[in-house]
Amino acid sequence: MILRDLYHWVLSWAESPHAIWALGAMSFAESSFFPIPPDVLLMALTLAQPSQGLWFAAVTTAASVLGGLFGYLIGLFGGRPLLRRWIGESRMQQIHDTFQRYEAWAILIAGFTPIPYKVFTIAAGVFYVNPRVFVVASLISRGARFFLVAGTIQLFGPWMKAFIERYFDVLSVAFFVLLVGGFLMIRRRRHAG
User: 67 near 28, Cβ under 8 Å?
Assistant: First the structure.
């Protein structure tokens, strides 16, 4: 009930003269603590002004990456002692080693799929992910997600919004599987050749 009300509140900003600022603020906040993804407002704004869709996607991407850096700082300066108290030093070291090994992939996956990006932005700070890797992976994954959403709505209109809202989780997992499958095929061909 609360999330549904919050969802409708987010949509109400689409008709505001301050919609672009609301989009930026929500994109920033969602990357570190806000529960509603900015895609909701991005879709509404792009439907209302299709010619501005790519601009809206750029604003969403930039604000989301900046919000991710804020989440990174939360993790860097406050998350480690708290996590150590909850799970202990040895378990934390195991997670740290795994996160370090797959840092770029973890951020790419979280930035594009419905997995809460904020969890990974904070974890990236807790586990000392290289800030450059974090920013590049965030720009790629968040940009791919938001430009794909805005671009498909520009091309296909209102019915695409309903389709994306209904099947976003399935579509993002399918895209991720194709992405990883393509990467593995290229890697296998390089090793075979």
Answer: yes
pLDDT band at 24 (very low <50, low <70, confident <90, very high): very high
Q: Of all residues in the chain, what percent carry a pLDDT higher than 70?
A: 77
Given a contact cutoff of 8 angstroms between Cβ atoms, the answer to whether 107 and 125 are in contact is no
Burial of residue 131, with CB atoms counted within 10 A of its CB: 0-12 exposed, 13-18 middle, 19 or more buried? middle
Domain map (residue ranges) of the chain: 2-192
Residue whose C-alpha is closest to residue 34's, from 11, 56, 67, 65? 67
What is the rounded CA–CA span in Å between residue 55 and residue 23? 11
Nearest 10 degrees: Cα torsion 30, 33, 34, 40: 20
Q: Residue 146 and residue 167: Cα distance in Å, rounded? A: 15
Residue spans of alpha helices (H) in the chain:
2-12, 19-30, 39-48, 53-74, 80-87, 89-101, 103-112, 117-126, 131-156, 158-192
Query: Alpha-carbon distance 26 to 128, whole Å?
Result: 26
